[in-house]
Amino acid sequence: MLNNLISIHGNNLRSLNTVLGEVGNVFGQVYRSILSSPNGVFVFFIALPNRPGALARLASALAELGLNLTLTYLYAINEELAMALLIYEAKEGYFQKAVEALRRGGAVVREAYEVKAINKINRSTP
């Protein structure tokens, strides 16, 4: 998939650095989302039609379940297909409902996770 991203941005070293920088920023945001949500997060990596409003309709369907979208990253693969990373605040008992809502909305759920930070150790100052 990295090759697809690179082809979108071009084939030079600067474009590769831009893509890698964007991916690094996204992972940093995912990490912060996990740590800041007391109930954890739902992480969905989906394929969806590259059409106006496709992502908005999916987000709306999950909002109707009472789920709060905290982060999204979307990129076009080609004229027909897009990929998205969606991070939602977790809500007990709603993981499978969210997956089903995404599928009903036309998304192909490539990967889905419920992630919780179980233990946290704060770094103390000596």
Sum this structure up briefly:
The protein is an alpha+beta fold.
Class from helix and strand fractions: alpha+beta
The count of helical stretches stands at: 4
* Total E-strand runs: 4
Give a quick account of the main beta sheet: strands, pairing sense, barrel closure: 4 strands, antiparallel
Beta content comes to: 25-35%
- The H/E string reads HHEHEEHE
Query: What is the general shape?
Result: flat
Q: Please, what is the oligomeric state?
A: single chain
* Helix share bin: 40-55%
Strand order of the largest sheet: 2-3-1-4
Global mean pLDDT? 81
Low-pLDDT runs of 5+ residues are 1-10
| Rg over alpha carbons | 16 Å
First-residue to last-residue Cα separation: 44 Å
What attributes characterize this protein structure?
126 residues; alpha+beta; 4-stranded antiparallel β-sheet; disordered N terminus
Structure description:
This protein has 126 residues and is α+β, with helices and mostly antiparallel strands. The protein contains 4 helices and 4 strands; from the N terminus they run H-H-E-H-E-E-H-E. It has a 4-stranded antiparallel β-sheet with strand order 2-3-1-4, with helices on both faces. It starts with a helix and ends in an 11-residue tail after the last strand.
